[in-house]
């Protein structure tokens, strides 16, 4: 009877140890999975940040291009206005010369 009791006790302890071992393994597995998830989340965040930076950079480049285009248009417009002014000045000078000539002719 004592032997049986000892045997049962021994089996009980072995079962207990087995269960504890299994629990430990499960906890380790869960911990490992948790860390992997954290790692994945971190990677995703980094990717998102990179994308945002890329988009920002593209936005800035577009802005710069637009500004350059506007400047070019402005310069073109100014150039045309200058040409017009020069044309008007030439026209006025010609008229003045004609007046002077016709004045001389009249005299």
Automatic annotation (TrEMBL):
Record region (Disordered): 1-107
Residue ranges with Acidic residues bias: 1-99
Top-level division of the source organism's lineage: Eukaryota
Name of protein: Uncharacterized protein
Species: Dissostichus eleginoides (Patagonian toothfish)
């Amino acid at each position: 009877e004592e032997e049986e009791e000892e045997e049962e006790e021994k089996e009980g302890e072995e079962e207990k140890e087995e269960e504890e071992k299994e629990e430990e393994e499960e906890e380790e597995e869960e911990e490992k999975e948790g860390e992997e998830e954290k790692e994945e989340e971190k990677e995703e965040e980094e990717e998102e940040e990179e994308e945002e930076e890329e988009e920002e950079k593209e936005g800035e480049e577009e802005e710069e291009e637009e500004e350059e285009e506007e400047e070019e248009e402005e310069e073109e417009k100014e150039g045309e206005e200058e040409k017009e002014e020069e044309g008007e000045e030439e026209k006025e000078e010609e008229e003045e010369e004609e007046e002077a000539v016709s004045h001389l002719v009249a005299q």
